[in-house]
Write a structure and sequence with these properties.
This protein has 324 residues and is of the alpha/beta class. The chain contains twelve helices and ten strands. Bound molecules: xanthosine-5'-monophosphate (XMP).
């Protein structure tokens, strides 16, 4: 297992850091080509910018539409990067992901499915077809820490788990942000010219909305949590509350509710909003009750089948921030 040194914000010499990573990428890739997947999160966006600074046209950037992203995300990210002069191609892989999710209920199996489909089926095939031997990836220090500690298997950890990507998948993974935690990644992103809506974006997990569904991940259940996510992000935006991240979670249990005077055995949405500096420990955001009430009204009126809304008041630990 690789021993890593963290580069803390206080020690970060941003321009030097960027120059060093750019050189490392250029030296590794040489005359070859590399590819990377952009999800629109802070980490993959920063990697896209570093990669393009290093390789220009020799880096092919793809947005993998896995069917579990938020509303309108693929088109939004592609157009945003177009403005930055970076061409991004969308690859529709929804069918592959939903086929892999079929029948899976266990959290780790769902995470494993995301990793497997991504690397073996979709991205692995892309790398092979493109003849790229290098894959740029936005793994950060915290991902490694939590995976090695056995808390959760982050989707983008391979080498730290002793998985040889060269042998197993046929390509080498380059991880230019692996020594940084999120605050440092944001600083690097700003220096690379990303707009604030990206470099200051609340984190969103690799397994995307699948990390917010208890039980089976189906297109129908994703549509429910996606709609709920839009409402939660509109009603308690982190820019207003000062939270690190807020989210909607779809429960597996049905609960008794009533609609139009009749019993309705319906769905339950859990809302979480987290205050934290580093995502290692966190506490729930103190949101005015009237805001929570208004959000509950919208969730029950606008998301088909939802009869109940709860707000999580647990700390991390023992909770984790995501539910899966
Ligand atoms: P947890 O749920 O572990 O989340 O308390 C801590 C932070 O990490 C994000 N997260 C992930 N990010 N891949 C990612 O890239 C993942 O598998 C993953 N799981 C959690 C989560 O959104 C939170 O900010």
């Amino acid at each position: 297992m690789t021993q890593l040194a963290e580069v803390k914000v206080e020690a970060l010499k941003t321009q030097e850091f960027i120059a060093e990573r750019v050189k490392e990428i250029q030296d590794a890739v040489g005359d070859g080509i590399a590819i990377n997947a952009l999800s629109g999160g802070v980490d993959s966006s920063v990697v896209t910018m570093i990669g393009h600074a290093a390789l220009g046209e020799k880096l092919k950037t793809y947005f993998i539409d896995n069917g579990i992203m938020r509303e309108g995300e693929p088109a939004r990210i592609v157009s945003l990067f177009k403005k930055l002069g970076v061409k991004v191609e969308i690859l529709d892989a929804q069918k592959e992901f939903f086929t892999a999710f079929k029948g899976l209920r266990d959290p780790e199996k769902k995470r494993h499915a995301v990793t497997d489909v991504f690397y073996k089926k979709v991205f692995g095939k892309l790398v092979k077809d493109s003849k790229a031997h290098f894959l740029l990836q936005g793994t950060i220090y915290t991902d490694v820490e939590e995976t090695v500690a056995g808390i959760k298997r982050q989707h983008n950890i391979l080498a730290q788990l002793g998985i040889d990507t060269k042998k197993q998948y046929g390509y080498t993974v380059l991880e230019p942000l692996i020594n940084l935690r999120k605050p440092a990644v944001r600083i690097v992103g700003e220096a690379l010219g990303l707009p604030e809506e990206i470099f200051n974006r609340p984190p969103f997990p690799g397994p995307a909305l699948a990390a917010r569904i208890i039980g089976e991940v189906t297109p129908e259940r994703v549509a429910i949590v996606r709609k709920a996510t839009t409402i939660v992000e509109e009603e308690i935006p982190v820019s207003d509350t000062g939270a690190f991240q807020c989210m909607a979670i779809l429960h597996d249990d049905r609960v008794t509710g009533m609609r139009d005077g009749k019993r309705d055995y319906g769905l339950q949405i859990e809302v979480r909003s987290w205050n934290t500096a580093d995502a290692v420990t966190a506490s729930p955001t103190n949101i005015p009750f009237s805001k929570l009430e208004h959000m509950a009204e919208r969730l029950t009126n606008e998301v088909p089948g939802v009869v109940n809304v709860v707000y999580n008041i647990t700390k991390k630990p023992p909770s984790t921030m995501e539910v899966v």
